[in-house]
Amino acid sequence: MSLGHEHNEGAGGHGDHYGPRPMPATLAAPEIVSVWRKRALMVFVAATILTVPFAFTHEGKNHILRAYLMGYMTCFGFAGGGLAMLMLQYVSGGKWGLLLRRPLEAMTRTLWVVGLMFVPIMFLWKHLYQWAAFPTAAATAQALANHWISLEQALTANAKRAMLSPGPAVVQTVIIYAILLLFTYLLNKWSLQRDADPRAGTQGSFDYWRIKTENLSGIGILIYVILLTDGAILWIKSLDVTWYSTIYGLQFLVGQGYAVLALGILTVILLSRWEPMKTMLRATEQHDLGKLAFAFVMLNIYLNFAEFLIIWSGNIPDEIPWYLNRIHGGWWYVCSADVICHWLIPFVLLLSRDLKRNKQKMIWLTCFMILARCIDMFWLIEPNFADAAGNLHIAGNIGILAYITVPAAVISLWGWFYLKELQARPLINVNDPHVEEMLEPEHAH
Prior knowledge:
Blueprint: E1 6-9, E2 15-17, H1 32-51, H2 60-92, H3 95-108, H4 111-124, H5 130-133, H6 137-145, H7 151-159, H8 166-196, H9 203-235, H10 248-271, H11 277-280, H12 283-314, H13 320-324, H14 331-350, H15 353-356, H16 359-381, H17 402-423, H18 434-438
Antiparallel strand pairs: 1-2
Helix pairs in contact: 1-17, 2-3, 2-4, 2-9, 2-10, 2-16, 2-17, 3-10, 3-17, 4-8, 6-7, 8-9, 9-10, 10-12, 10-16, 12-14, 14-16
C-alpha cells in the first residue's frame, strides 16, 4: 500500500491521509510490556507480604481464604470471559474484534494458570462450603443436631448432594477446565495457522478461516454458557446452599463480558502509544469498543435489577434472606457502592461520545470498571458467611483488609502471565479482511 500525504492530527488522534496508511514495520508488542510485567510482579510481592500478618489476626485465615476465592473468580472472569468474548467476535465479525483478538487470545492462554489457582481452594474448601464441611447425610445430621446449621440448610444440602459434594465438585471442575482448554487450544492454534496460510490475503483464505472459526465458536458459546452456569453455582452460589437463581449463570456471563471489555479496551489504548496499535487504533474503533462496553453495562444493570425486583416483590421466605444479608447493617453501604460504581458511574460516563473517543478518560474509566467488578465480587461472596454482619468493622477485625491485599496479589500474578502471553504473538492478526479497512483514513471526527 502506498503512503499518502499526511495532515495535522485531528480529534481522532491520528493524522489524516489522502490514501491508506502502511502497515506498521513491526507487529510485536512494544518493550514497555516487559516493564508492565515487572510492575505486576512487584505488586504481587508487596501484596503478598502485606497479607502475611493477617493470618495471625482474629479469623484472619478465613478472610484470606475468602479473599483468595474472590481473586480466583475475578481471574476466571478474565480468562474464561476472554474465551467467550473471542468466540463471540468470531461469530459476529466486525473490526472491533480485530483489535481485541490478540489480547483476548492472551487471556484465554492463562486458563491453565487459573485452573491451578483452584487447587488451594479444593484442599481448603471445607472452610468455605457447607457441603464440603459436612459431605455426607450423616455429617449433615450431626451438624444439625449440634445447631451448626439450620434445618433448611440440612434439607437443601441433602437434596443437592449429587452435585454439591467433594467428589462430584472435583469432577465438574475438571470437566469445565478440560473443555475450555480444548477450545482455547484450537482457537489459538488456528489463529497462528491463519496468519501463516499460503493463501493469506485472498478471499478464499478469508472465507475458509471465517467458516472454520464460526463453526467452532457457535457451539462453543452455548457450551461455555452451560459450563459457566455450573461453575458459578459450584464456586459461588453454593456458598449459601439454600440460595437458588435461574439466571445466576447469565449474570456471571454478562459480568465477565463487562470486565473483559474493560481490560481489553485498557490494554489496547495503553498499547496505542506505541506501534503497531498506534497506527491500528483509530478513534472510530475506540468509539465502537466504548459502545460495546456500554451495552454490557446496560445488560448488567438490567439482569441484576430485574432479579432483585422480582424476588423483592415476591417476598418469598426462601429467597428474600439473600438480599437481606446484603443490605442490612453496614452492608447497605457496600450495596450502595456496588450500585454506584458497578452500574451508575460507567452508565452515565459511557453515554458521552466524546469520552468514548478520549484515550486518557477511557483509561481511567476502564480501570474504575475493573475495580467496580471486584467490589461486586466482594458483595457476592462475603455476606454468605454467618460472621459477615460484623466483618465490616476493622477494629478487632483487621483481617478483613485481606479482601484488598489478597485479590491484589492474585490478580497481579495473573496479570504477569497475561502480559507474558501478550508478548508471545504479534498484536495484529494480519490475515483478516478488516486490516485494510482499518488502515484507511478517518473522514469524520
